[in-house]
Amino acid sequence: MSKAMTGRAGGRLAGKVALVTGAARGIGAAIAKAFLGEGAFVWVTDIDDDAGNRLATELGDAVRYRTLDVRQEDHWDAVVGEVVAGSGTLDVLVNNAGITGFEGALVAHDPENASLADWRAVHATNLDGTFLGCRAAIRAMRAAGVGSIINISSRSGLVGIPGAAAYASSKAAVRNHTKSVALYCAEQNLAIRCNSIHPAAILTPMWEPMLGNGPDRAERMEELVRDTPLRRFGTVEEVASVAVMLASDEAAYMTGTELTLDGGLLAGTAVQPHRDES
Ligand code: NDP
Question: Residue 178 maps to which CATH number?
Fold first, then answer.
């Protein structure tokens, strides 16, 4: 085993080996950077090889990039196999890769008009990807009997979202599967913890199709956070700091839990669905 492929001494994640999916940009990239800063060796994975390789090169020796399409069983087998062979262990998995379904075009995603193909595509990445990731991680972590799995759900997994029904459904299922994984591992006498993070509006490229580059961009941004008590988008670093805590031994007694990161949105406001008056 190469010495260089394990974490360094010092930091809240000293010596740990982590794998982050969808980490070429956005929240995943911020988590990879934060983990690295806390002493972890980080396997950055994504389907965007150019951006993934660029990030790994930028971050240096304690980071490797590998292609991992979270929908593909054989990708999981190959990459996690390489992680365990190269780093000797897997301590932390972040199931971060996710799509809204609006990446290609702003197609209908409401319960009446969404197509079955679009519904399935969102679930394939967000839910199937998380299932496959949890399964691969449990198998890889079983030998040591300890680990942390962090599933990036969404505040949309806690409430209904009429215009993004597949996204909301997939994220609700991620929340629930997190609890099944947590209980299963505890039943198996494994200290493998599994928790979910539920961000609301975090400014990343995921929002671009919805914000556009038109003259009304600023207005759209303001509108999107009007109901948020803190009245702003969250930052990727704010999500990453919660992931660091869940990955670390500081959270050793936390499993099956969900942490919302939403500027206070779900604390008390009643957000009414938009009424179509036409
Ligand atoms: P981004 O769209 O900015 O980044 C997602 C990354 O995942 C991209 O690099 C993308 O690659 C990659 N990806 C897409 N499909 C796959 C796949 N099948 N396998 C592996 N990688 C894939 O998203 P965010 O950083 O904003 O979001 C990260 C996570 O956080 C998602 O799960 C999202 O649902 C969740 N989240 C985000 C919120 C936000 O406001 N941003 C709020 C709540 C939750 P490519 O660009 O090539 O498609």
Answer: 3.40.50.720
